Amino acid sequence: MSDFIDQLFTTLQDRKANPVPGSYTASLLADGEDEIVKKIGEEAVEVILAAKGQGNQRIIEETADLVYHLLVLLVSHDLTWDDIRQELASRHK
Q: What is the pTM of this model?
């Protein structure tokens, strides 16, 4: 699983460095932080709603959307998935 996250993260970084016309990621990054955090908020609410009775498949789908938008936020701030891994590891004692 983490291999795919790493691949996705690399793609997101590439979209920031080399925007592709028509790319949702490139447009989201171009729209800036306000749009990115708005999408994170929307997706977080959708995860909650899915958990409250929409079934496991909807939870999976909405969580995937949330994780994607969180990764876009990291890319926009020049942070890495490894930064998150390290933080989680530091909390696991």
A: 0.91
